[in-house]
Amino acid sequence: MTDVAPLTGPGQRPVGPGRGPTRKAPRVVVAAGLALALAAGIGYAAELGPFDPGPAIPDPEATKQARAFLADWEAGHMSRAAALTSRPEQAERVLNSFTAGLDISGPKLTPGAVTAGEDGAVTVAFTAKMPVTELGTWTYSSAVPLRKQDDGTWKVEWALSLVHPKLSATEKFRLEREDTAGPEVNDRDGNALSSEKYPSLGPLLPQMAGGVRGGPRGAVRLVDRATGKVKATEASFGKKSDRPADRPVATTLDATWQAAAEKALAAETDGKDAALVALRIDDGEVLAVANSPSSGFNRAVSGTYAPGSTWKIVTTSALLLKDAVAPGDVVDCPKYLTVGKRFQNVETSEHRGATFRKDFTTSCNTAFISLRDKVGDEELGDVAGKYFGVGQKWRVGIPSYDGSVPTPRDQTEKAASMIGQGRVQANPLIMASVTATAVSGTFHQPTLTSGGKDTTRTTPLPREIVTQLRELTRATVTDGTASILADLPGGVGAKTGTAEVSEDAPNNGWFVAHRGNVAVACVVEKGVTGGASAGPVVRSLLGAVPDDPS
Q: How many other C-beta atoms can be found within 10 angstroms of the C-beta atom of residue 395?
């Protein structure tokens, strides 16, 4: 039970009778005056016309200050946010106490309507979405009051009610968690899974249990500061399970594969952030999901990365589906190709007069970019969604990011999309699934637990396309950039990838592979090249587990 207890201190011009010699003149003036008065009355009634000053127009500088305050609060820069207020010390203390005491991380504060009061004050409404760790998101509305200072600047007029309308000198919030022992989580063969034995599963076990059982439960209560009495419940999280408490949760994971994946990441990544997923090709069941570091963010399933040249599996599928190229066609591979910006191959390699098969196995960026006019602007995204399920809603059993392939905004971005750059985003789960679909022809939604409804809709790849993709990935191992797997038995196929992050940071390294009924994908952040960084991880995994699970 955690308390959040910041404390605070407390008309018309008159018309003359006229001087004309006749009596009609005054009547005309009076009539005109009456008409004017009536018109004015109508104007007042409708709040229109020259006598209504209209609503005050908020000073844009006030809005700018409110937005800056919300942005700093959202980013966790409490001292900077507090400095924009009329009471910096109290503001910083309350903001820190509110956020830490309620286990809030990554708040989202969205500015809304702006109003100006008759006294010159400005109010900016906002919506707060407060993620409470391991429970859910608490959403509410509040407002930022601002007042102009003597020097002409604007300051946030600090008040507890700014943070939440019900936070006051007499009432505060308290986070209550229900102490529920999580159910046992087992692998596909009934072996118990624990974070002690499989560190990468530490953050995932509660999620996998929660997807089947009620999951963590708790509430944000409004309480009296003096007595601690609950006045109201502001947010409730989780639900009670109707399943027997002693019934273990079954997963698709394989303890042998999970252990090998953890070991491969620990041994082969030189301490770099990395992630790996292995899954069954015939049904999408996940055998292993591992992250390095093992605690914290699940980059294997929820990460958002440019997949680099591993995405050329999808690009190749789009080209083959249109009969725009054949593996034996000559598609030149120069060192550079300029499409708005200069693109190049890894280590500025070139293969003049190369066939498309050579371009694939050596991962030639310039050759693939040169074929961009063979596919429509939306076609790469359409193929990714229609055949590979990328971008559709997946129900894996834990929170997942399911990919994005936006329509390119210009030719430069289209060129980048052809090689898995630009705004194309994926993660190891997606790329393992892409590999499995490419070599089997059929997309199977990846799953970690049973019971998740599959709402995806895809079309199988034509058999001749699958045959060509299998031949190309196999040739990448025997004659191309994935030769690190060449000594492994089982007709292994693979594709390497190098993904540019920024001009200042080293590239991420990617590697996808398939053997028998298993597809694997690995990313190593700042790994420079896929073959040199992610390749050894996949080699270690496949070498340690020679037999596919039944």
A: 18
